[in-house]
């Protein structure tokens, strides 16, 4: 990685978050591509083979529609369908896990990491992330169904209301893993931090998630457009497809269908980075506005780079000077003044003694003169 493209911990507006998603993808596209080929390609290949097995078993039942399908064919179809579901579920979890790990390292280490670091974090956080996603998705589905149930029977209003409620709860699901990877929080603490983001930002989170989901859908469909048109033409212009000609074109149908699945999977998994990064930036935005984390981090970093020098207290001369607040730099003048006062006192005392001696000598002389007389 090269130099930092943008600051992760930052208060952002609605538009800045959406723009930050694309800046993030451009900054870390090399690691995303590496994760796509090393992790997702094997899983998507396995999933495509499972889909082909499932479709082939369906063709067998479809060709024998005049007779009752055998129990073995039904069992094979069911098992192959479950295998497709399990493989795609694991591929989705792996994709989300890699992308959340990438986002967490982008926040904590900026650009000083590689794909091996991302993979190591993903392995370390796998079970905690798996449990968090399962619990949050189940809770979100149950709560959204309960809330939207009273108006679900209304044809159009109920559908839109259900979509809004689903966006409201799913936004929490996408935010919940962010504290686990950014702040190294545990299972319950990550959920608490995600729920705390609802206060004051609930509908903003839902609106942002809805916008990011639309972007994700448009980008994925744009990859599918050419092959979807080909598949549509195949359905429209194959003569007698719905009248029994499916067996003749079964191989072509399988090839086109499997190619469609591969492109759809790549697009869905790769562009799932859009809602993940968007909701991650929204979490950092909320935390920054409430806790000013980046400011404290910058202050601590400056203190590490330029530690303050210890201040030594100025020594004092003696206890008497400590009481009156006289410092050492003032002591020379004090000593000089004290010396002058002492000298003056000694000179005055000597002069007094000399005067007393003179007086005594004068008195002695006068007494001697009186005795002589």
Total count of strands? 0
**What is the beta-strand fraction?**
under 5%
Uncertain residue ranges: 319-341, 356-373
Helical coverage, percent range: over 70%
Helix/strand layout:
Elements lengths: L13 H14 L1 H35 L7 H38 L6 H10 L1 H23 L8 H19 L1 H6 L4 H10 L5 H36 L12 H21 L2 H19 L1 H13 L13 H6 L6 H42 L1
Protein model, in words:
This protein has 373 residues and is an all-alpha fold. The protein folds into two domains: 14-305, no CATH class; 319-367. Helices cover 78% and strands 0% of the residues. The chain contains 14 helices and no strands. Helix 3 (71-108) packs parallel to helix 11 (273-291) and helix 5 packs antiparallel against helix 6. The chain is globular, with a radius of gyration of 43 Å. Mean pLDDT is 75; it is low at 319-341 and 356-373.
Structure characteristics:
disordered C terminus; 14 helices; mainly alpha; about 375 residues; about 0% strand
Structure, briefly:
The protein has 373 residues and is mainly alpha-helical. Helix content is 78%, strand content 0%. The protein folds into 2 domains: 292 residues, no CATH class; 49 residues.
